[in-house]
């Protein structure tokens, strides 16, 4: 027997000979195990849950010796706030704005854009020249360009593990609690950036965004006179329809495909001075060094009036040759894949955004997910679980087979390609001096914060160390006034990683708001001196003093034990009577199901709400109810039936099936009747139900007819199936 069970049995051994109404305070304290010997450290290996005085192995070991300040908890946690060597800085997710972070990742790793932005003059440099970095007032960027400059400088040289992009997000007046259209945000950003830079005096700065801008023209040809009309337009990204397509090249071909302008959509020809049928197409004139391809997976649903997401698999290659699509070719347009922006989720209004971006300097792929960054193995793009959807069974059937150098995705909403170069430039982007001074200032603040936080945590750890060393020695109650406290709370108090919360003893209370005797295994008895300190520092309750010992519960427990012991004796007696040879045909009919479960039914009849002694394997104190039937099966059968009602027919008479009942002796029935006085009494001379006999006889007479009908139905089944 396990030590805990031995302690429980010993705590109630007195109840075998003591009547419930004769209980004394000594018996109550014994049931609550007040005077059990406390365990000794070094002798007891682990905490004895059956002994409320055992205060060993609850987490005290790490606090009782001398502790070096570097070993206090959370000291190493500060290193988690620090940027790791040769890693990228993370971006804090502000709520529903992670789609902004994914674009920032792509733009930051675009070295040409980053260097061009660093060259852009701003009030940052003027501020630094006038005030330096020692002013108490922090510098606050004003324009989008300044926010982006400062953010990129922090991403490049900050000592922090992650930085806060809230200043950049506020410039767009974005609601951090509401997810916006990521594709619309991309266009909004580029237009605002262009507007900001166009106001600069330096023409080279004004044209920074133009370096990342392509050109195409809308070509409209009149079918009547053949006149060609051209409307020049610039673009930062190509918006590609993916519905009905499987490959990226098919989407590009559709984007450039001719469109017929007929009927109500006819074109007004200036030459003909009338509306004419015409053809219209897009002609690519020049492409940018970074090609952004927006996969239009978020589309308008005309039936609901809302946007929906297209979960269509699109295949794309790591190398994209755009030469066949460009009319005027000032150079070669062969691109390499540099980023994939992914939206996880089936709704256009919710989900999670992930960026997989290629580092242009190392050529390695990185996955940016919230504040975390993960380097892909083998310099390869790995979409992996980002392609898992809520309904994988539907998506797997449509998944494309991808060859070497190609990928397929149903969650990608933007592909970024960089212009392929014969010679890979091995160059780095230097942070301008005025921005680096701001970064150094922020790094100094971060280091000061780390020192201050470390000091606070060391001081807090030392205070906790002294508290535990002092109070743990005074924790045992002995013969002095005592209280009970939750073992779980004590363990959390001693846990260096868990903040101490108010004491909560509610789970150990009985229906009388006293300490339940059965909950003593999850409680510990401590001195009132320490309990007073605990409640003054941490609060909580209710306080469980000596007045919390529940006499009513102990009396009830004693009564239950008496009933169980008597029931155990009667169970053995009935068993022996059933095994004994019965003399004559006198006796009483009892349902076999009732016989198998009469002990459980007896407990219910006696209103004993104690199931621990009656295990689910059908045993009570070592005696087996049934070898071939579990408690769950019995419960199903007798859920709605009382004892011996299982052999009553629907008419309330003795059932005609003898397989469901058994004849027992008068002595056995007399003992059973003590527990079930209202059970149906069915002597052996009782006739079976006459109505059931008539129904049975009619069933036998109609059996050939029923068999013939069944054969006819069986013969007609193949015809029904084939028709």
From TrEMBL:
<feature type="region of interest" description="Disordered">
    <location>
        <begin position="613"/>
        <end position="637"/>
    </location>
</feature>
<dbReference type="Pfam" id="PF00443">
    <property type="entry name" value="UCH"/>
</dbReference>
<dbReference type="GO" id="GO:0005634">
    <property type="term" value="C:nucleus"/>
</dbReference>
<keyword id="KW-0645">Protease</keyword>
<dbReference type="InterPro" id="IPR018200">
    <property type="entry name" value="USP_CS"/>
</dbReference>
<dbReference type="GO" id="GO:0016579">
    <property type="term" value="P:protein deubiquitination"/>
</dbReference>
<dbReference type="GO" id="GO:0006508">
    <property type="term" value="P:proteolysis"/>
</dbReference>
<feature type="domain" description="DUSP">
    <location>
        <begin position="459"/>
        <end position="550"/>
    </location>
</feature>
<comment type="subunit">
    <text>Interacts with TRAF2 and RELA. Interacts with GPS1.</text>
</comment>
<keyword id="KW-0539">Nucleus</keyword>
<keyword id="KW-0788">Thiol protease</keyword>
<keyword id="KW-0963">Cytoplasm</keyword>
<feature type="domain" description="USP">
    <location>
        <begin position="89"/>
        <end position="420"/>
    </location>
</feature>
<dbReference type="InterPro" id="IPR035927">
    <property type="entry name" value="DUSP-like_sf"/>
</dbReference>
<comment type="similarity">
    <text>Belongs to the peptidase C19 family.</text>
</comment>
<dbReference type="InterPro" id="IPR033841">
    <property type="entry name" value="Pep_USP48"/>
</dbReference>
<dbReference type="InterPro" id="IPR050164">
    <property type="entry name" value="Peptidase_C19"/>
</dbReference>
<dbReference type="GO" id="GO:0004843">
    <property type="term" value="F:cysteine-type deubiquitinase activity"/>
</dbReference>
<keyword id="KW-0378">Hydrolase</keyword>
<dbReference type="InterPro" id="IPR001394">
    <property type="entry name" value="Peptidase_C19_UCH"/>
</dbReference>
<dbReference type="InterPro" id="IPR006615">
    <property type="entry name" value="Pept_C19_DUSP"/>
</dbReference>
<dbReference type="InterPro" id="IPR038765">
    <property type="entry name" value="Papain-like_cys_pep_sf"/>
</dbReference>
<protein>
    <recommendedName>
        <fullName>Ubiquitin carboxyl-terminal hydrolase 48</fullName>
        <ecNumber>3.4.19.12</ecNumber>
    </recommendedName>
</protein>
<keyword id="KW-0677">Repeat</keyword>
<dbReference type="Pfam" id="PF06337">
    <property type="entry name" value="DUSP"/>
</dbReference>
<feature type="compositionally biased region" description="Polar residues">
    <location>
        <begin position="614"/>
        <end position="625"/>
    </location>
</feature>
<dbReference type="InterPro" id="IPR028889">
    <property type="entry name" value="USP"/>
</dbReference>
<keyword id="KW-0833">Ubl conjugation pathway</keyword>
<dbReference type="GO" id="GO:0005829">
    <property type="term" value="C:cytosol"/>
</dbReference>
